[in-house]
Amino acid sequence: MDIAHTPASPEGNPEMADAASQPKQPQLILRSDYKPFPWLLPDVSLDFKLSLEKTRVSSRLEVQRNPNAVPSPVLELNGDGITPLEVLIDGEVVNSWVLEDDKLLISLSGEAHAVEVVTEINPSTNSQLMGLYASNGMLCTQCEAEGFRRITFFPDRPDVLSTYSVRMSGDSVQFPVLLANGNCVASGRHQDGTHWAEWHDPWPKPSYLFALVAGDLVARKDQFTTMSGKNVELAIWVREGDLERTEHAMESLKRAMKWDEEAFGREYDLDLFNVVAVSDFNMGAMENKGLNIFNTKYVLAEPDTATDGDYDAIEGVIGHEYFHNWSGNRITCRDWFQLSLKEGFTVLRDQLFSQDMGSAPVKRIEDVRVLRSIQFPEDSGPLAHPIRPDSFREISNFYTSTIYNKGAEVIRMMRTMAGEERFRKGTDLYFDRHDGEAATCEDFVQSIEDGAGLDLTQFRLWYSQAGTPKVTVRQEQDGTTTRLHLTQSVPPTPGQMDKKPMPIPLALALFDRQTEEHRGEELIVLNEAEQSFEFSDYDAAPIISLNRGFSSPISIERNVPREDLVFLAARDDDPFARYEAMQDLVVSHLVSALRGVLSDADRADGQEAILKAFSAILEDSALDDLMRGELLILPSPAYLSEQLETSNPQAIHEERERLKAWLGTQCAGQFEALHQRASGGAYSRDAAARGLRKLKAQALIYLAAGCPEKAAKMAAAQYHSADNMTDRQSALIALAGLDVPEREEVLDAFYKRYQGDALAIDKWFSIQAQSLHPKAIEHVKALAKHPDFTLKNPNRVRSLYMAFAANPHAFHAADGEGYRMIADCILALDPINPQTAARFVPPLGRWRRIEPGRAALMRAELERIADAKQLSRDTFEQVSRSLG
Ligand code: PHE
Ligand code: ZN
Questions:
Q1: Which of 15, 21, 329, 732 has the most other CB atoms within 10 Å of its CB?
Q2: Ligand 2 centroid vs 749 CA: distance in angstroms?
Q3: Which residue has its alpha carbon closest to ligand 1 atom 9?
Q4: Which of 635, 709, 621 is nearest to 665 (CA)?
Q5: Shortest CA distance to 61 belongs to which of 168, 165, 167, 171?
């Protein structure tokens, strides 16, 4: 390619500058097209002249030909919305470059060159929050996946690893704190009131892990001594008033560092570890090397503002980002198709960490609940994709529950099959073999195979096949032999009509009906389409507890007699299986009711069985309260609708509410007593006290459904006497759903108490948007006009509209008003923040699984979005796949 002709500077060619703002024709990118980059960039130097409106970025790239790639005479650098002000090769200003689409193409003749490019950006107008942006007067970056190209021209792909030296200078009043990756190596002041700092990160990294922060921040500081005795300075940076709220995050960080040493043998590798909290952030947090950037939601906590759930989430996310230092940073991804290599593995690591820090069974149940209510629907809808996708148009759309949560489940299955010790040998080998590399999912599987001594040939299908496998179970008793006849099928998903059987590890236990005991847990692996397993010496058909601990991420179809489920719900020694039996009991009842195949007598029987299991849970003195609270949670509407080919979400909601109300009335006395027992103790974060708060919340939920007046009084009293956010929130959730005078009063009290506290006000928005109140739609419309509402802050947008889209009775209003509101939100948000806008498409994309009347309305809204001019690549891709 000859590109060394007419120079195209932005001034010289106005069309060029325009091209950047034109809607891009979204191109399909294929995994099979991977090619190594023709150039190596061992060293990168960046110089930032910081200012909110105009930041000047000068980059210097040392480039060398990559001996392992097809050579090219051109250096192709990605850009997005930027233009080069100046290009230098080996110190000389050159014109031998062109800007083609968003790419800067520079002709290079030799083996190695120094390439310098100058750009200018405006952080204060960067509402996408990708690249360098301003948030509350501070500057920060977000580069994953493709944000670095909005800062400077660069081969913005994860397999180009460089060491970075960063120099930045800026106003010392506006930006007293200057941070980047690695270690601060020098700093100083200029005469003109500006100051500067130089940072160096010795570890080669891809551009998506670059980070810079400049602002008026204060830090909680601490230290950690690593297993080999090295001292690490820890700092969590926040805005002035937020310092007291960082203690839990800091404690979580130290626990995470220790845990990773013990559980995975991973030691931290820099002298500094910085965490910065920002209130404008598209995601939860980001693992930039040595400089994690967090959504404030996952850093700030004190009892008055954060719920028990928030505390747990902070511990989990702090752990997650820290664990990325090895699973993601030391070993990164070759290309974005391998995203689950770092995300699936790191989610598993954070799940195991949280299991070890608190109640392992409760954590496991929570993780499975998320999987089933978010990932299962994704896997059965138009956006289904394998954990290692084959194609995408916009990578931001692939930060999904499938990549993260199913990715974690797939690795967890390997761990289950290998056992903990052998799995550790596999991960040790992986870290050893691929340290410093940009690796693939295949590299990971191969390491586990070699290190743990497993044959994963067939197991690799879990990486390439989408869809939740369905396993059917038939139990047969032949004399004293018990046979389990199992079948498996993986449903068709977009682009994948035929699937092969996969290995499905099933942990099981057979309970003897006489002794009510089992002979120990076993692991069987179903790897054919149809397979039978035999168990001998059972006088009578045993009660089978299957997929214990949720050993495989599958759905199971099986007719278990109600009494057996009641037995397992009360007696299974695997807490997850116990929860599962309870869920099965409720799911089978509600699904029969929804299918209209329930006679009055059947309904009564079903309810009685549930009541019996419920009472056993309420009364069981051997249960801890956290677990008790967990067992009382009814299956989510999303999971219920997964059980039906097509459904009417409002009908599901009503049927579920009806059962709740019935249980609330039947167990009113028990719930009141429970609430009483759980009230009054002093606030503490220990498991017992948290268990009690969870019980209070559950008691209010059931009583609000069954005895609303009584519940309203209890909730108002709970609210007013509460000394913590968990109790305030659970009281408010109950009241928000009721048409009672206390509702308004407590909502106002909450608002006044927390006015100006963004995270607490987010809760105020989302509690109303997700409420059971019949007028929720009107409330949401009014809230959208509230002075505190803004489309510019992702947390606030999500707190209103994500909560609303998850509110089945309101979002699925029969006249389509809820769908219209979400579509309007997407259209208004798309020009501001496409990444966040696109995340509202999946709820509308579920139309194929919804009854025809509503489905047509949902489709119509998707079409209305598709017809809009200037749609972002993000939203375009999600809408077209959803209609497809
Ligand atoms: N990599 C981040 C994580 O999972 C998530 C993220 C993706 C954050 C993209 C920002 C942008 O830890
Ligand atoms: Zn992650």
A1: 732
A2: 37
A3: 144
A4: 709
A5: 165
Residue 541 dihedral angles phi and psi, to the nearest 5° = -55, 120
Helix, strand, coil % in the chain, rounded to nearest 5: 45, 20, 30
User: Hey, what are 705's tokens?
Assistant: 């459904």
Instruction: From the CA of 317, give the closest atom in ligand 1.
Output: 12
Q: What spacing in Å lies between the alpha carbon of 466 and ligand 1's midpoint? A: 22
Residue 300 CA to ligand 2 center (angstroms) comes to: 19
Task: Tell me the ipTM for this assembly.
Answer: 0.99
Give the mutation target among 140, 144, 347, 398 for probing the ligand 1 site: most ligand atoms within 8 A of CB.
144
Task: Report the first-to-last Cα separation within the chain, whole angstroms.
Answer: 37
Q: Assess contact for 21 and 88: CB atoms under 8 A.
A: no
Q: Give every CB contact of residue 449 below 8 A, 6+ residues apart in sequence.
A: 426, 455, 456
Q: What is the band of 652 on the pLDDT scale with cuts at 50, 70, 90?
A: very high
Q: How far is CA 727 from CA 6, 317, 689, 720, 770, in A?
A: 68, 23, 11, 10, 18
Catalytic residues: 321
Q: Report the SS3 class of residue 172.
A: coil
Q: What is the residue with the minimal CA distance to atom 3 of ligand 1?
A: 286
Q: Kindly report, residue by residue over 123-172, the tens digit of the pLDDT.
A: 999 999 999 999 999 999 999 999 999 999 999 999 999 999 999 999 99
**DSSP annotation of 752:** H
Q: Is 561 helix (H, G, I), strand (E, B) or coil?
A: coil
| Beta strand residue intervals within 122-159, DSSP E | 131-135, 138-142
Please give the single-letter amino acid code of residue 648.
N
Q: Where are the beta strands (DSSP E) in 3-150?
A: 29-30, 39-49, 55-65, 74-78, 86-89, 92-93, 97-100, 103-107, 112-121, 131-135, 138-142
Task: Tell me how far apart the alpha carbons of residues 750 and 763 are, in angstroms, rounded to a whole number.
Answer: 10
Q: Are 700 and 718 in contact (CB under 8 A)?
A: yes
Radius of gyration of the chain (CA): 28
**Cα-to-chain-centroid distance, residue 565:** 32
**d(C-alpha 191, C-alpha 403), whole Å:** 51
Instruction: Compute the distance between CA of residue 749 and CA of residue 760 in angstroms, rounded to an integer.
Output: 12
DSSP characters over 618-664 = HH-TTS-HHHHHHHTPPPPHHHHHHTSSSB-HHHHHHHHHHHHHHHH
Nearest residue (by CA) to ligand 1, atom 12, is: 286
In sign, the C-alpha dihedral spanning 783, 785, 786, 791 is positive
- Which atom of ligand 1 is the closest one to the Cα of 324? 12
What pTM was computed for the model?
0.97
Q: Look over the chain and give the mean of its residue pLDDT values, rounded to a whole number.
A: 96
Pocket of ligand 1 (CB under 6 A): 142, 144-145, 282-283, 285-287, 320-321, 343, 399
Do residues 358 and 317 touch, judged by C-beta distance below 8 A? no
Q: How far is the CA of 286 from the centre of ligand 1 (A)?
A: 5
Task: Kindly report, residue by residue over 804-843, the tens digit of the pLDDT.
Answer: 999 999 999 999 999 999 999 999 999 999 999 999 999 9
| Residue 283 CA, ligand 1 centroid: distance in Å | 6
Please report, as a single letter, which amino acid is at residue 845.
Answer: G
Q: Whose CA is nearest to atom 7 of ligand 1?
A: 144
Q: Which residues contact 680 (CB under 8 A, 6 or more apart)?
A: none
